[in-house]
Design a protein that fits this description.
Shape: rod-shaped
Order of helices and strands: HEHEH
Structural class: alpha+beta
Largest sheet: 2 strands, antiparallel
Number of strands: 2
Strand order of the largest sheet: 1-2
Distance between the termini: 23 Å
Number of domains: 1
């Protein structure tokens, strides 16, 4: 493996780690979501009466592992593999 191949492999690895870190920081969800359920604040009287809190749907995109992170990782692996193939050097045989 020559230096250009090592650099391409390192850049691909850094991209994969960066996107996996972003996925983890954004919630680490397995599937992508287009919204989340949020509890509305209750008054003290509602808490004393033991009423269930009301839930409100908030539209918010959360990146998921399966469709987005793995797709991007697959694209990076494919591009890195193609670069490794094209950046290889042919060794000359001395006879």
């Amino acid at each position: 493996m020559n230096n250009k191949q090592k650099i391409a492999l390192l850049i691909g690895f850094i991209f994969i780690l960066a996107f996996a870190g972003y996925w983890q920081l954004s919630g680490g969800e397995i599937l992508s979501k287009d919204g989340v359920w949020i509890e509305k604040e209750q008054s003290d009287l509602d808490k004393l009466l033991g009423l269930e809190p009301e839930m409100e749907f908030k539209e918010q995109f959360i990146i998921g592992l399966i469709p987005h992170t793995l797709g991007f990782t697959g694209i990076v692996v494919a591009i890195t593999g193609i670069l490794l193939f094209f950046l290889r050097t042919k060794k000359k045989e001395n006879k």
